[in-house]
Design a protein that fits this description.
Blueprint lengths: L9 H9 L3 E6 L36 H16 L3 E6 L9 H12 L4 E8 L6 H13 L1 E9 L3 H6 L6 H13 L3 E8 L6 H14 L3 E6 L2 E2 L3 H7 L8 H14 L5 E4 L9 E3 L6 H15 L12
Helix pairs in contact: 7-9, 9-10
The site of iron/sulfur cluster (SF4) has 12 residues, from loops.
């Protein structure tokens, strides 16, 4: 039997809520993104690969329901999952009318065994009518909103060509919170130009602004991206594996223990990843983080202070 984690995992939360093994199934519902379709920019964030930052194994040619049915078989075999969360992961999954969102999310929730939904998006794709709809949906099913923050530092958001600032994230978070929608923030560790102190300052900020969950990504380079060009020209340096594990442990120690950890490492696909190749072995990275927390006899929130 595996040891309990020294941080507050999302998978344990799902077991508590549903009483059984629940797995996320990634879905590509054909959305795009204002940072890629020319509305804000045509190039997107410098790290954004062809599948909209994540979701590399999805078959977008299938309907939403068919993608989930496909995923159910895999999750049953691999993890003995009994129930499933539809994870709208690719691109910006609220970049459409409420009617279209309702049709797509409704299709996902009608698949037998689907117990909830996660909707990933940008903070500038959340007008009030969409948030009102998500709040209603959250009253009917288990719902999370994943919001791309990436950094609290506007210099970094400009560097990665995010095309929104931290204030935009705070505004979306406040309006989601007012509707009691659970929010998980995505944060990248290892952005060029950020000091270790600036990266760790994000833990304190997340505590203060009141997110419910956090997804940590290490900066990784995917083929065909602007970041890949910069990396090829020696303009960006990446964290090494031990350095990343240590940084994650420092981050966790500062984080409010009530915040759920949805992920602690990146998920670049083998076929498209340029670097760092060590990130392909996610279990090794997670084991290193566990071992380091154990070595320190530490845990999430060890250095958390509600007043900071
Ligand atoms: S917001 Fe997401 S989908 Fe849009 S360009 Fe950035 S990473 Fe890609």
């Amino acid at each position: 039997m595996s040891q309990p984690k020294r941080y507050n995992t999302f998978s344990d939360e799902l077991k508590r809520v549903f009483g059984c093994k629940v797995q996320r199934i990634s879905v590509d519902a054909g959305f795009t993104c204002p940072n890629r379709d020319g509305t804000l920019d045509g190039e997107g964030c410098i790290f954004c690969g062809g599948s909209g930052s994540g979701a590399y194994s999805i078959r977008p040619e299938l309907s939403v329901a068919a993608q989930i049915e496909d995923g159910k078989e895999i999750m049953r075999r691999k993890y003995r999952a009994k129930r499933f969360i539809a994870y709208f992961q690719a691109y910006s999954n609220t970049y459409a009318s409420v009617e279209r969102l309702a049709a797509l999310f409704g299709e996902a929730l009608s698949v037998p065994g689907v117990a909830g939904i996660i909707v990933a998006t940008r903070p500038d794709c959340l007008p009030d009518d969409v948030l009102d709809y998500l709040a209603r949906l959250g009253g009917q099913t288990y719902l999370w909103l994943e919001l791309g923050l990436q950094s609290i530092h506007d210099k970094s958001l400009a560097f990665i060509n995010r095309r929104h600032d931290y204030a935009c994230f705070l505004d979306a978070l406040q309006r989601a919170g007012a509707r009691k929608i659970r929010v998980c923030a995505h944060v990248i560790l290892g952005l060029p130009g950020e000091t270790r102190e600036e990266m760790l300052a994000m833990a304190g900020a997340l505590n203060r602004i009141g997110v419910d969950g956090v997804k940590l990504h290490l900066l990784h380079v995917m083929k065909g991206t602007r970041l890949a060009e910069m990396y090829g020209q020696g303009e960006v340096a990446l964290l090494d594996r031990d350095g990343y594990a240590g940084l994650v442990c420092d981050f966790l120690e500062l984080l409010d223990p009530a915040i759920l950890i949805h992920r602690l490492t990146g998920d670049g696909g083998r076929d498209n990843l340029v670097a760092p190749l060590w990130s392909l072995n996610k279990f090794e990275v997670l084991n290193l983080i566990d071992a380091e927390l154990e070595r320190r006899d530490s845990r999430q929130g060890l250095r958390f202070s509600p007043s900071r």
